[in-house]
Design a protein that fits this description.
- The protein has four helices and five strands.
- It is an alpha/beta fold and 174 residues long.
- A five-stranded mixed beta sheet has the order 3-2-1-4-5, with helices on both faces.
- The chain is globular, with a radius of gyration of 16 Å.
C-alpha cells in the first residue's frame, strides 16, 4: 500500500499501429488509466514518457485526476529509447526516496555505481514499462535494467502489439 510506481510509457510512432483497436497508444493509455483508478490513495504513481529520449512527465503523486490528465495527453515522437526510460524512471524514484541511488550514465566510465542491494531485497518501488517494441536509440536496456535491479527496483514490462501491426496513421494520441 506504500509502493511507488513509475509508468514508463512508450510514445514512439509505432504505438500508432492499429493492430490493437483503435491503436496501441490508446490501448496503453487505457491500461495505464485503469491501473491508476484501481490504486489506493497511499500509492504514488509517476509517468515517464519515452520515444527518442525519456522525460518525467509527472513526478510520483497520488492525485488521480492529474495522473489521468497526463496519461490522456501523451503525443508521439520518433525512435524508441527503452534504456533511457528505465534510467529516467530510476531517477524519478530517487527524487522522492533518498535510499534509492540515482542512475549512472553508462557512457561515463569514471562514474561509480552504487553497491547493489542484497540478493532478494527490494525497494518499495516498481517500474512498469509499457512498450510495443525494441529499443533503437539510447543506453542498452539490459544495462539500465541491471541498474534498477542493483537498486532493488523491480521492472515489469507490458507489451502491446501483434505480429501484424496493421496500418499506422502519421500520428496518434492527442
Amino acid at each position: 500500500s506504500r509502493t511507488t510506481v513509475v509508468l514508463a510509457m512508450d510514445v514512439s510512432r509505432s504505438m500508432c499501429a492499429t493492430d490493437i483497436p483503435p491503436n496501441r497508444l490508446v490501448a496503453a493509455e487505457k491500461a495505464a488509466a485503469s491501473f491508476v483508478q484501481r490504486q489506493g490513495g497511499a500509492t504514488q504513481i509517476g509517468v515517464v514518457a519515452f520515444a527518442g529520449f525519456a522525460q518525467v512527465i509527472q513526478p510520483p503523486t497520488n492525485d488521480e485526476e492529474v495522473l489521468l490528465d497526463v496519461i490522456a495527453s501523451l503525443a508521439t515522437g520518433r525512435r524508441t529509447a527503452i534504456g533511457s526510460a528505465i534510467l529516467e524512471s530510476i531517477d524519478a524514484l530517487a527524487e522522492i526516496d533518498p535510499s534509492i541511488p540515482r542512475s549512472v550514465d553508462p557512457s561515463d566510465p569514471p562514474a561509480a555505481a552504487p553497491p547493489a542491494v542484497p540478493k532478494g531485497a527490494y525497494a518499495p518501488a516498481i517500474i512498469v514499462l509499457l512498450t510495443d517494441g525494441a529499443s533503437n536509440v539510447g543506453p542498452d536496456p539490459l544495462e539500465a535494467a541491471k541498474q534498477a535491479v542493483d537498486r532493488g527496483l523491480r521492472v515489469y514490462t507490458i507489451g502491446f502489439g501483434t505480429e501484424n501491426p496493421g496500418g499506422r496513421p502519421p500520428s496518434c494520441g492527442v
